[in-house]
C-alpha cells in the first residue's frame, strides 16, 4: 500500500513538472516575430546584393550600355525600397554597414568582369544578358 502511494506521488510530481514545459511550448516566444522579420530582411538584402553584383558584372563586360541605366536598380534609395524602409534594423550603423555591403557588391561585380575569360559567361548564356537588359528597361519605365 505504501509503495503505491509513493509511486502515485512520483507520477504526480512528474506530471506537474511536465505541464509547465508543455505550456511554454504552446506559447510562441516573444522574439519569434522579430526573428522572422530579421530573417526576411537578411534574405531580401542578400537578393539585392546578388542583383547588384550581377548588374555591375554585366556593366563591366559591356553587356549594358552605361551605369546610368542600372542606378535605379542598385542605388541606396532603391535598396531601401527593395528591403522595405520599416525594417527592424533601423540604426545608423546598420545602414552604414548595408551601404558598405552594397559598395562591396558593386566592386565585386566590376572585379569579376575584369578577370580574363569571365565575360565569356554572357556568350554562353545570352538569356542572362537579355534578362539584365529587361530589368533595366522595366526599372526605367517605373520611374
Describe the structure.
By secondary structure, this protein is an all-alpha fold. The chain contains seven helices and no strands. The protein has helices spanning 2-26, 32-60, 67-74, 76-83, 92-114, 121-124, 126-142. Helix 3 runs parallel beside helix 4 (76-83) and helix 3 (67-74) packs across helix 7. The longest helix has 29 residues, at 32-60. The chain is elongated, with a radius of gyration of 27 Å.
Defining traits:
7 helices, 143 residues
Provide a quick synopsis of the model.
The chain has 143 residues and is mainly α. Helix content is 80%, strand content 0%.
What distance lies between the first and last C-alpha atoms, to the nearest angstrom?
Answer: 85 Å
What percent strand? Answer: under 5%
Order of helices and strands: HHHHHHH
- Count of β-strands: 0
- Give the count of helical stretches: 7
The average pLDDT value, as a whole number, equals 74
Principal-axis shape equals elongated
How is the biggest beta sheet arranged?
none
Which residues sit in consecutive blocks of at least 5 with pLDDT less than 50?
Answer: none
What is the SS-derived class? mainly alpha
Radius of gyration: 27 Å
The helicity comes to: over 70%
How would the blueprint of this fold be written?
Elements: H1 2-26, H2 32-60, H3 67-74, H4 76-83, H5 92-114, H6 121-124, H7 126-142
Helix pairs in contact: 2-3, 2-5, 3-4, 3-7
